[in-house]
Amino acid sequence: MAKPVQIEVWNPNGKYRVISTKSMPGTRWIDLLVQQDCRVEICTLNKTILSVEDIIALIGDKCDGVIGQLTEDWGDTLFSALSKAGGKAFSNMAVGYNNVDVDAATKYGVAVGNTPGVLTETTAELAASLSLAAARRIVEADGFMRAGLYEGWLPHLFVGNLLKGQTVGVIGAGRIGSAYARMMVEGFKMNLIYYDLYQATRLEKFVTAYGQFLKANGEQPVTWKRASSMDEVLQEADVISLHPILDKTTYHLVNKERLSMMKKEAILVNCSRGPVVDEVALVEHLRENPMFRVGLDVFEDEPYMKPGLADMKNAVVVPHIASASKWTREGMATLAALNVLVDMRSLHINFFIILHSI
Ligand SMILES: NC(=O)C1=CN([C@@H]2O[C@H](COP(=O)(O)OP(=O)(O)OC[C@H]3O[C@@H](n4cnc5c(N)ncnc54)[C@H](O)[C@@H]3O)[C@@H](O)[C@H]2O)C=CC1
Ligand SMILES: O=C(O)C(=O)CO
């Protein structure tokens, strides 16, 4: 039975019907769609994560394109429904496709897009923030102040880790991993070790040039190393940040065995996807190694945390906000709208006008 649909409508007489499963920041994305004769329907259902059934009800009998969210399961059922409704385009408002079955989309003739690039610096900045928060125990110290426990300066009070001169490890040195690495190398003069399936040539050149600059100014130069295995990064680095895509090869990339390879006082940051880390093993490791710290933006079973994680003082946890800057979220929404417009190309969208209006 069809579910009731709660929507906000823009340009009711538009020729093409485009649905956004969530309200998104800014209005530029709506303007772009409206300028191209789209009727835009935004779901206003008061429910954080829409089910497949909810989305089928939104798609209805006629739908040309959909902008969806990373919390939704875009598989065979939804692409079949979209295709039956005449849909040709889907865009994920996210980087990557771990919630999207691209083969199913292809089977049903639906083109899929995502929104990389505009998230890079914002996400890297959050990874850097978590690295600092964990290294300097900021959340613990904040809680201590608010609890009225501060009685005066003490030599041992909330002693953490100095980053300067230590080694930052990056797993997955793509757009975000490289941006994070540059921040940590340039900002805190850390040495870099990274692991990726591909060589990060521009990142290597950056660290080399920065090292030369430091040396020319009488400072200790920073260094870089491309590790031949992920384990090498885990063994050598003091702060490790995870930035790979999530796929079969990266599921539980950090597991019990790999956690045990890391330094006892290391810091692990995850701003990629929750399942990249075996969270049960992580909780156990945090419990057994109080000097080991983590900064987590993502969780294995979002919105839930594995039992025990919330009690760990050596964990800083935030609710998947790495891309949450106004500029980035508006950019993601704009890119998602453009993806849908471009992929509805059989509808004779006027690309000249689109390009001149962004
Ligand atoms: N927490 C958040 O809010 C956000 C999370 N993300 C996540 O970050 C991921 C990375 O985003 P970008 O840097 O833009 O993507 P990207 O594609 O530029 O970088 C991913 C890197 O991971 C590497 N990689 C793939 N498999 C690997 C493996 N088995 N071992 C080591 N490296 C491997 C790739 O070669 C590539 O260089 C996204 O796929 C997304 O899941 C992205 C944006 C925001
Ligand atoms: O875009 C992504 O990949 C996210 O995780 C949301 O910011």
From TrEMBL:
Main location: other
Protein's cellular compartments: Peroxisome
Domain D-isomer specific 2-hydroxyacid dehydrogenase catalytic: 33-340
Molecular function GO labels: glyoxylate reductase (NADPH) activity; hydroxypyruvate reductase (NADH) activity; NAD binding
Catalytic activity: (R)-glycerate + NAD(+) = 3-hydroxypyruvate + NADH + H(+)
Taxonomic classification: Eukaryota, Viridiplantae, Streptophyta, Embryophyta, Tracheophyta
Domain of life: Eukaryota
Record Pfam families: 2-Hacid_dh, 2-Hacid_dh_C
Protein's recorded name: glycerate dehydrogenase
Keyword field: Glycolate pathway, NAD, Oxidoreductase, Peroxisome, Photorespiration
Pathway: Photosynthesis; photorespiration; 3-phospho-D-glycerate from glycine: step 3/4
EC number: 1.1.1.29
InterPro entries found in the cross-reference section: D-isomer_2-hydroxyacid_DH, D-isomer_2_OHA_DH_cat_dom, D-isomer_DH_CS1, D-isomer_DH_NAD-bd, NAD(P)-bd_dom_sf
Domain D-isomer specific 2-hydroxyacid dehydrogenase NAD-binding, chain residue ranges per copy: 130-322
Gene Ontology terms describing biological process: oxidative photosynthetic carbon pathway
Membership in a protein family: Belongs to the D-isomer specific 2-hydroxyacid dehydrogenase family.
GO cellular component: cytosol; peroxisome
